[in-house]
Automatic annotation (TrEMBL):
Protein name: Protein-L-isoaspartate O-methyltransferase
Keywords on record: Cytoplasm, Methyltransferase, S-adenosyl-L-methionine, Transferase
Coiled coil regions in record: none
EC number(s) given by UniProt: 2.1.1.77
InterPro entries: PCMT (IPR000682), SAM-dependent_MTases_sf (IPR029063)
EC category name: transferase
GO molecular function: protein-L-isoaspartate (D-aspartate) O-methyltransferase activity
Pfam families: PCMT (PF01135)
Length: 286
């Protein structure tokens, strides 16, 4: 078991807090510079409450710790809320998407050393030269998928490029079934470890080349690419439902976000949206 997988059944606070010699959690003196960081570090509220947190409150011996967890998750909820407010300000209006962004603990998807930056609206490294996407772009792409003829209902969604699993977790709150493919084995495993403690029943992770899609479970009414190719692979276009939507960054040095809608068996329409910056879509596995 890796350090990371050991970490996840525990409240984040029990990992990031430094223990003093008497075993109690200590906190460095808060300054304006560290306040946001501490708030982000202290939160430990997964989508589903963990057994560890519930167990802690059952014993009076742990009561102070349980109260500290409760208080700190309120602080962290506020930090995440600020991130969501910024996403709304940048133009995402879909209340369900904003609620999903507010519910997923992004700090659990980055290395503990980066947890203080988890609620900044920026992409962050996740190893293997890949990144967790910027929160705004995650919300924006999902909102584009939901802006469909079905009033936002998404039955089966495919994500290409699981990375650390963050966007899949957000999607799981907005789609009935989420399939996500990652081509780098170590990241596929990382995503599994990150998602396991959140006990999300409707995500299926797949190790493989996402450029091929998942013909065995297609068609999808939503497809999101989290990596930029020179064009959208035909296999993915073929795996869309009629009426389905696909959002993808396209390009190399200069990339644009593309929204593709399937309007008939052999007909797709494409809309070019704003410039964007993603890691490259690569063929094969690693
Ligand atoms: N979805 C992530 C973003 C991950 S970055 C998030 O929640 O933030 C994009 C990922 O796409 C990288 O992990 C990269 O390895 C992966 N990727 C690139 N080409 C791919 C392909 N052909 N199939 C599957 N994954 C791919």
């Amino acid at each position: 078991m890796t350090d990371k997988s050991k970490r996840f059944p525990l409240p984040l606070s029990s990992v990031v807090d430094k223990k003093s010699s008497n075993g109690r959690a200590t906190r460095s003196v808060a300054t304006p510079q560290t306040a946001t960081r501490n708030a982000a570090l202290e939160n430990s509220r997964p989508i589903t409450p963990s057994k560890t947190t519930a167990g802690a409150s059952a014993s009076s011996h742990f009561e102070p710790a349980a109260k500290a967890v409760e208080r700190s998750s309120m602080i962290s909820d506020a930090v995440r809320k600020a991130m969501v407010d910024r996403i709304a300000m940048l133009g995402v209006r879909d209340a369900k998407v904003l609620a999903a962004m507010a519910a997923v603990p992004r700090h659990l998807f980055v290395e503990p050393a980066l947890a203080s930056q988890a609620y900044i609206d920026a992409a962050l490294p996740i190893g293997h030269h890949q990144t967790i996407s910027q929160p705004f772009i995650v919300a924006h792409m999902i909102a584009l998928l939901r802006d469909n003829q079905q009033g936002g209902v998404l039955n089966r969604v495919l994500e290409i490029g699981t990375g650390c699993g963050y966007q899949a977790a957000v999607l799981s709150l907005l789609a009935k079934e989420v399939y996500s493919i990652e081509r780098i084995k170590a990241l596929h495993e990382l995503a599994k470890n990150n998602l396991r403690p959140l006990r999300i029943a409707n995500i299926r992770l797949q190790y493989g080349d996402g450029m091929l899609g998942l013909p065995q479970v297609a068609p999808f009414d939503g497809i999101i690419l989290a990596a930029a190719g020179l064009e959208v692979p035909q296999a993915l276009l073929d795996q869309m439902t009629i009426g389905g939507r696909l959002v993808a960054p396209v390009g190399s040095h200069h990339q644009v976000l593309q929204l593709i809608q399937r309007v008939g068996e052999f007909d797709w329409t494409s809309t070019t949206l704003e410039d964007c910056r993603f890691v490259p879509l690569r063929a094969g596995t690693a």
